[in-house]
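Supplementary notes for students who missed Thursday's class. We covered one full example, reproduced here. Read the sequence, then the structure, then the short commentary at the end.
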Amino acid sequence: MKKYLAEMFGTFVLVFIGCGTVVFSGATVGHLGIAFAFGLAVVAMAYAIGPVSGAHVNPAVTLGVWGAGRMSTKDAIGYIIFQFIGAILGAAVLLWIASNRLRGFDPAVEGLGQNGWGPGYGMSYGLVAALLFEFIATYIFVKVILKATESPIEVAGLVIGLTLVVIHILGLQITGVSVNPARSFGPALFVGGQAMSQVWLFLLVPAVAGLLAGLCSRFCPCCKK
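Structure (token representation):
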């Protein structure tokens, strides 16, 4: 349970800081600031809860670690459940804070840092672009994590966080960057509408990419040492 609660807290922090930067400071800090907010949140959690749970804070990462044979099925299920709980709590707190703005706040109009694609989102990229980006970006992200954590090196958390930064720099205008089903589901749940109708992609594609990255690390000869 200690590991599961750590994952819940870590995913809460990721959504609270990353999506919170989009909601409260996005217009000020721009895309680069948002990218660093997500990446540095992961760095912080790597050192804060890494010794407890490994700081997955992402179901795609958990599936990758499970696919690589590094964790039990029971723990993988527990991690994923509590990651989603953490993401929902993080989005709920963001909504509560935003809703206390004196001139009001409409999440359906102003958003909660949710992911998406198509007309009216980012630079209006289509479904195929969104699918390809999320698959490739998640695969790269999980592969970096699996390689960086093969041995206990002190800079692993920094490497992982900076990888997430560059992925956000690349993809914010395509999908807002998910590479994390829980991070996508939390905000979409409260925004509703188009966000919920499109969340299937951000649940499915990163999960498949993360799992494939783990299986390749385990079984593909070219991915082994």
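Commentary. The longest helix spans residues 2-48. The chain has one domain: 2-216. If anything here is unclear, bring it to office hours.
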